[in-house]
Specification:
The protein is an alpha+beta fold and about 140 residues long. It contains three helices and five strands. This is HIT family protein.
Length: about 140
């Protein structure tokens, strides 16, 4: 994509702090380090979000994540955890519309990152949960 900042990074038109690259995946330090070692993992192929992945692209990208995560853990032995974050579409806080995964090392509860889930205001019945699961399952099976 012509005006995509991540496509420009992959092509080498914009510099980056590369931590990993192969034929399908490029990983580099996020320019705004939420915590030390905050890394982005992107497919080299331009896809806007997770909804545009095919099985091969997903397999290629997600297969590399553990390798990069282990490299972060070895590089930063004081790391006590890791958040894997993927935002899809603007409402879900996606700001660069080339799909990417954030690997965010965690060092303590006082580091500069917080991810919390509020209590839902709606409580679902067992029947509603079963109906929801069935409807999603039907869509998963229809896409095979």
């Amino acid at each position: 994509m012509e005006n995509c900042i991540f496509c420009k990074i992959v092509k080498g038109d914009i510099p980056s702090y590369k931590v990993y690259e192969d034929e399908a995946v490029y990983a580099f330090l996020d320019i705004t380090q939420v915590t030390e070692g905050h890394t982005l993992v992107i497919p080299k192929k331009h896809v806007k979000d997770i909804f545009e992945y095919d099985e091969d692209l997903a397999s290629n990208l997600f297969a590399r994540v553990p390798k990069i995560a282990r490299a972060l853990e070895k590089t930063f032995p004081e790391m006590a955890g890791l958040n894997l974050v993927n935002n899809n579409k603007e409402l879900a806080y996606q700001s660069v519309f080339h799909s990417h995964l954030h690997l965010i090392p965690r060092y303590s509860k006082q580091d500069q990152f917080s991810l919390t889930f509020g209590e839902t205001t709606k409580k679902y019945t067992t029947e509603e949960m079963a109906e929801m699961a069935q409807a999603i399952n039907e869509q998963v099976m229809a896409n095979d």
